[in-house]
């Protein structure tokens, strides 16, 4: 989920907003707008104890590492972090929990983009200092976050959410590709939807309208498209989402299908931007997999998952 308290469009015929306070979510078939999700106090999955230095001699960024406010330093931080993150992803076997270097670098990578989304003037100057390919990636990520933040509505600091560790990245990738083979919906789009909905299943809370599971189905939509599966099972949920998107116009018209998933052009744009980045470099899937859950509250931003 790109994280935030999200407002949905006028009517969503199939889903409901995953967690209304998460920046970058959506869900199949709920009425709008969404409110905050309720649950138990947030928990954070444990980080692996083993890690490798991202680059020889470099320290890994701390979970609360300050984000540079100067454009030149911000550009340097993004360039260095992206290079180190890609190298760490290449070393990771993808089958178990992410190593510490991947988690810490991905969190800093995410936080840099979130800062850029909120500070467009600094971001524009920083991105102008980047190589063309990295600048294009940064612009897509920042635009997607900004689109989803525009739908945000801060919640009370006392709101609580249920979170959990996601299934392994390789396991989820297998489900996305299986659904693509069956329904013809690109796996990158399905991955971007789960990323937006629940940060690959990290968000466990149902929405206040009753949407459930890693792809956030409303009960009626699940009965129509769930094919008898379990709404909380990642494989069943991915297959159902592909089934629904196919019935709504994908792969011929992804914009139409995604708009049916959530009646928000900003949401549609964000999903397609993230999917485009995964297509350009599959390592971006693993980077997004390690982006964490944040919520916006009236007292400020709060991170619910990831390294402490």
Written overview of the protein:
It is a single chain. The two termini are 19 Å apart. It contains eleven helices and two strands; from the N terminus they run H-H-H-H-H-H-H-H-H-H-H-E-E. It is globular, with a radius of gyration of 18 Å. By secondary structure, it is mostly helical. It has helices at 71-91, 100-118, 120-127, 132-149, 169-183, 187-198, 219-225, 234-247, 254-261, 265-280, 283-289; strands spanning 294-297, 300-303. Strands 1-2 form a two-stranded antiparallel sheet. Helix 1 (71-91) crosses helix 3 and helix 2 packs across helix 4.
Layout of strands and helices, then pairs:
Elements (H helix, E strand, L loop, with lengths): L70 H21 L8 H19 L1 H8 L4 H18 L19 H15 L3 H12 L20 H7 L8 H14 L6 H8 L3 H16 L2 H7 L4 E4 L2 E4 L5
Antiparallel strand pairs: 1-2
Coarse shape: globular
Structural class: mainly alpha
Number of helices: 11
Task: Catalogue the unreliable spans.
Answer: 1-20, 30-56
Biggest sheet character: 2 strands, antiparallel
